[in-house]
């Protein structure tokens, strides 16, 4: 009978839920990410006029505004401005010299953030989407002393330009744009404000319309249209330069990039320049770098790129003659490069970042002022991959005529953001991890090989197994010298408690699993869950064109990671240890041999079909009630081991669990009536095992759900009514074969296709302080360890581990638990669960924007590995019942040794006494 | 962290007059200086389904909801290091003046019916300012119990070994210090092998039962020598 064993195990495995002070920051890891920084929203800036040190500010493609300390790459502050940023929504981030705020604009909001600490200074809602934001540098009679006003251009049906007070965020004037022209950009010289509009002609080409405004009252002073007939087919070839340069320009090319046209905003003439070809390769991209300062020299740089080379021309604007002249060219270099502009006083410097060096020139002459070799970027790349810079920002420190130091923050083609100080990598931020689409745990090859060898030994006859084992040990003898050398060191480290648990190859506890992540830009990035401070390997899995998306699905089997995606119907397999591509096969060839059931959402319902039979009709069909939509479907995890088929009660009787591997939780919603329905489905027969209806639900709040073992959990937000509580709820249900102990009810061992036995379901509802946007559960190897429900709290940016015993639906309601229930660990039911800060797996870290949490069992039963992704990446190890099979940090080695020594001393001391007593008892007579 | 009102009803917001609510963070023993709060601190105003406002902390330690509709709201302040009490905020149109809105705030209790209101934080017309204070600091970490000599000595293993040490060293000394008559008497008692008397028999049964104690049976919940309890 195994039950007493489990009873003992149960009593042993009392749940512990806490982050230990000595494990925090060591066991867990966190990449606080921003997303990929954008070229024109990234800059070095001094947070206040008094501070000397500058910070790097950026507004990323994920709509996150944030600041990074250039010294160590740590986030100073950040805010996620938009939840669902589409690829096309443009964001703007501007800062003005000597101001202590940075101004962001995205979607329908403009906000000024305190540059040093990220507090909000003011914000503004706009009617239309924000098309451009500029800080007005000019000092007119409307300006408030000490602050600089902000110009906000909004598009949409009512496009308008507003001048916003830089201190309070109130509107000073508004210019309503007449006509249906598309608002494109706002630009300011030292005297005037210009609005650049795009006028679409009948033939589908764009014409550039420039409206100049009086900066004090916002009245139109002039308007003209640039003759760009049939040149501008798309907006992409406009390379205009924004506000605040000494002489703002607007530049564009034709679709084939053969001529560059430049207009000084305010003058009606355009200058035209031919773009040369290089090695008969057409120029693919032209971009402009120019200083963003009214008092700097009016110079700008045009950057040309072909498929395999790049170069640049520097132009000077003659302000007195209103003429643009080409000054000099920077040589053509093979490969891609990036340019950045820096300003010191009035001087302008251009820094060129090519694949192996950084050079800086002054805008006035082509003499190289500084040249630094780029040795090692410190990023992991695929074997044949060349890392190229995408864009960069630089900060120079200039002593006299020479450049004494340069700091450059470069975004690389791998999605890493790197800071180079004089060409040496200082820090690397793997920003590509902010876009993980799918992730999976895998095992390294070394561990897998050993596991396989042990497997062969276990399954062959004893003699063969013995020979195999001896051979294996002889082979391992080769490693003996190395092991002997490191032995004292290992012993010492183990004793002092400084060692980790061996490397990836000798992964005794299974903590060093490989986490493979597929990112939105088509890369595969692998992290080591045991030493996560660096990226294990990174490679381009598929090449995607810009703007192309894919839906990757990563799965793993031992040391093989397989990737399926919809872009090209193929199935790729990679080695988990080094990321090498093992095989490629087209997905159509894969045949399903096992009887498999597939599920599709069809006609608003859920359809189940057998996959192994061609053209099979549906097995069952679930259609929601009228006016209802399917919200989500969450199945029980495939790998969900259960140690015991029953729950042992305090009096050692057993409640049998309803264990069915094919269970899924389906949520449907009726948005008109604010109703959410929850169904537990048997996915083979289509039977509804349990259902619940919740009324008065806020459906704009997330509904997270989870099924595991014989229980399910879901969370929703209820709206107020005078009798019922308002707020967020967590509902837990547990299914049993029968509710009377020691009775398996009618079901017993059953087939879902033959019997219709319904489980007995107990549920409990708890009020929780904040909404849960994602639920997950810890997994262990055998399922003996008690479980934690992992919940992501969006509002607190935290992952918490809630012990299942806290949520147990069998908690007695309205009375104190009996002795037997106490023995089981049941507490009296209380309707409110306060999220104890000690349940926060992330403790003081703030984990932003997680969309999924995956778990994997370690080799030791006590521990489950947790990995969360979405925007930030967070991982940790959870021992839901304490570390009962690993010597944790609570094991005091000194105390153990002292006890051994003490006992030895006591034995030595007592031995003569015992001896004398033995002798005395025989020889002494009294 | 979201600056926007996530699902705000713009249309109705435009029609209704602007109810402007400011929540300031006051100093408390848990938070002597509210300026030390991190920039990620934010406040959420949760209204009827679909209405939710989420604003970040401002430079003057306040949360500003510039324009809120008439409804009953739950206000939650989320901070990394501190816990704030939830508030119920009601915004209602004032009956006599259609353009006026009354804003009123109470403490509310999680898990209680919505009409169960706590002490009032005050009420105001159109523009209101309430102050919240954190009631607790979040404790994230658990310290492990360190080595403690007293608890070490209190552990049963150590107590048992100490008793046995006392027996080994102390008993011979006691025997020596006894007067010879007592000693002789004891010797006689231990070595007496006379015929069993009634008292002796009873003693031997106890001795027997102690020697033959069914430890396994007792562990398995056996109550008496009869049948074992149903398992």
UniProtKB/TrEMBL annotation, chain A:
Keywords: Endoplasmic reticulum, Glycoprotein, Membrane, Signal, Transmembrane, Transmembrane helix. Residues 1-21 form the signal peptide. GO terms for biological process: protein folding in endoplasmic reticulum. Its main location: endoplasmic reticulum. Coiled coil: none annotated. It is found in: Endoplasmic reticulum membrane. Gene3D superfamilies: YVTN repeat-like/Quinoprotein amine dehydrogenase (2.130.10.10). Residues 18-431 form the EMC1 first beta-propeller domain. This is ER membrane protein complex subunit 1.
Automatic annotation (TrEMBL), chain B:
GO terms for cellular component: EMC complex. Its main location: membrane. The chain crosses the membrane at residues 157-175. The keyword Membrane applies. This is ER membrane protein complex subunit 7 beta-sandwich domain-containing protein. Keywords: Membrane, Signal, Transmembrane, Transmembrane helix. It comes from Extremus antarcticus. InterPro entries: Beta_sandwich_EMC7, EMC7.
